[in-house]
């Protein structure tokens, strides 16, 4: 069962590495221009780590990813994504995903990021892509959507959330130093989060 998860994580790493320039460019506008560099460095290590090891469970696999991210990404995003994956590692099942397990996984990521970074939705951070995606899953559960429909909606909401960071003023992280000048730019962390959510959904339904 860890094989499928490894495949998804490997693809996720490829997408982040492919988007290194894009993420760095976004971070140059409202930060210090290293988000793509930070993330690509970390996910290159993740690829090596997971492909060079055997894991008995998804929990072990995700914990290994979390530790690698915490020790290699750096910046604000390293500990935040690291904690998200660490929290996910505590709840991820080995069985096929269900709407309930996906909600639990998404909510754990949000909890981990908020525990570390103390940000709320609307502060122009990675949470602005992730929270709407998790909310979409919760809504799909209530509506009784099937898993594929739920995941497609989740992806759309993550993208809308990412784009919604453009008119926001940053009140957390480095971009907050710019005050009103942070308005008009898409948040780099919300962009990397969207890319990860998109990749997971696409890999589950390819
Ligand atoms: P740094 O700002 O230290 O250079 P990165 O460039 O790698 O780190 O990451 C910047 C991203 O981190 C931002 O675009 C934002 O999405 C995210 N971020 C910063 N602070 C927080 C926070 N407190 N909570 C959630 N996300 C945050
Ligand atoms: Mg930066
Ligand atoms: Mg930095």
UniProtKB/TrEMBL annotation:
Pfam families: Dak2 (PF02734). Signal peptide: none annotated. Pathway: Polyol metabolism; glycerol degradation. This is phosphoenolpyruvate--glycerone phosphotransferase. Residues 3-202 form the DhaL domain. The keyword Kinase applies. Keywords: Glycerol metabolism, Kinase, Transferase. It comes from the Bacteria. The gene is dhaL. One of its GO terms (cellular component) is cytosol. It comes from Halanaerobium polyolivorans. SUPFAM superfamilies: DhaL-like. It catalyses: dihydroxyacetone + phosphoenolpyruvate = dihydroxyacetone phosphate + pyruvate.
